[in-house]
TrEMBL record:
It comes from the Bacteria. Residues 43-77 form a coiled coil. Residues 339-359 are annotated as: Disordered. Keywords: Coiled coil, Membrane, Transmembrane, Transmembrane helix. The keyword Transmembrane applies. The chain crosses the membrane at residues 20-43. Gene3D superfamilies: OmpA-like domain (3.30.1330.60). Signal peptide: none annotated. InterPro entries: OmpA-like_sf. The keyword Transmembrane applies. This is OmpA family protein. It comes from Labrys neptuniae.
């Protein structure tokens, strides 16, 4: 009997640890691999289920949004339905207005007025309605319309037939004013007064200067403008002439800058105290510009043309041309004269002849 060696016993022990030709370690690895395969299959199935649940969730959200929109639409319809509760009241108001309109038509026909004619002349009635609220009777209105129609008929013969009713009415008013003036002893040649602002009356300029003193400026903006505005309205004029006059004292030798600064000064772009006239004609013009600028900026003379002019040393008070014999200091000659007249266009369209409209 042979004796077993250690190597033989070790080999036998090794063979006892093999299963199906695999060691225990290899079997464990195989089991782990099988588990991984099983887990992968399970994970894939869960992923498919999750995707299916996500798709169903999206469908549910879409359905919910649709339901919410439907709810909003239903709420809007409910509000509209609630508002339709006023329909009976609206029907009552419409019916009442219809009855009132029928009553108005019947009343018009009773007074001999054809409703169809009212529709035809609706545009003209719109202009007439404001006069019905005044304290004027229907007979007065009818008389006034007949007079205007007669006036238009007469004016056709003198080539004024194209005037509007408003223009005809203005002419009638002007004619009435003329008749009133004649009854008061004033005729078409009753010229507007001339406003004389002389140094003798306290309207002072500094020697050789055109800028207004504080007192002169205050008088202009109060009493003077008020007088001018009153004359403009009373005589229906639209031009104011501001004429600067001086005495015959010579202006000291200096260079004039009026050619470059006079027009900007009238527009208010250059200060009046920056004007330097070289002679009396220029000094008179500079002073006229100084006064004219105040007048044309006053809202009471809106729409009136203000013209600055110069008489220099040539015109004596009383509209007489000087003979040059009085060369001293004469306060009465240093003055601003304000005259009014009608512009050519206004005179041509006025009631009185043009020759009788210029003062």
């Amino acid at each position: 009997m042979r004796r077993a060696t250690s190597i033989g016993s070790d080999g036998a022990a090794y063979r006892r640890g093999i299963v199906l030709g695999l060691t225990m370690a290899e079997i464990m690895l195989l089991l782990v691999f099988c588990l991984l395969i099983a887990l992968t299959v399970m994970f894939s199935r869960e992923q498919e289920r999750a995707n299916l649940l996500a798709a169903r969730l999206k469908q549910a959200e879409a359905a919910l949004a649709k339901e919410q929109q439907t709810s909003k639409d239903l709420a809007a319809l409910l509000d509209e339905f609630k508002r339709t509760g006023a329909i009976p009241q609206q029907l009552d108001d419409s019916w009442r207005k219809l009855v009132e309109a029928r009553g108005l038509v019947d009343k018009l026909r009773e007074n001999g007025v054809d409703p169809d004619q009212l529709k035809q002349y609706a545009a003209k009635l719109k202009d007439i309605l404001p006069t019905l609220t005044a304290d004027v009777s229907g007979a007065d209105l009818a008389t006034a319309w007949r007079q205007i129609a007669e006036a238009k008929s007469r004016m056709t013969t003198i080539e004024l037939g194209n005037l509007t009713v408003s223009e005809v009415a203005d002419l009638i008013v002007k004619g009435a004013k003329t008749q009133q003036a004649e009854r008061e002893g004033r005729g078409e040649h009753d010229w507007p007064p001339i406003i004389n602002l002389s140094e003798a009356s306290g309207y002072n300029f500094a020697i050789g200067r055109a800028d207004l003193t504080a007192d002169f400026d205050k008088k202009l903006k109060t009493n003077v403008v008020e007088r001018v505005a009153k004359i403009v309205a009373e005589y229906d004029v639209d031009v104011v002439e501001v004429i600067g006059h001086t005495d015959e004292q010579a202006v000291n030798n200096r260079a004039s800058n009026l050619d470059g600064k006079l027009i900007p000064a009238l527009a208010g772009k250059v200060q009046i105290d920056g004007l330097t006239p070289a002679d009396n004609a220029g000094l008179g013009m500079a002073r006229a510009v100084s006064v004219a600028r105040v007048l044309e900026n006053d809202p009471r003379l809106k729409g009136v043309t203000v013209l600055p002019l110069s008489g220099g040393q040539m015109i004596l008070p009383g509209d007489k041309v000087t003979d040059g014999s009085v060369r001293g200091d004469v306060k009465e000659r240093r003055r601003i004269e304000i005259r009014v007249r009608r512009s050519e266009g206004k005179a041509a369209s006025g009631l009185r002849p043009e020759s009788g409209t210029h003062p």
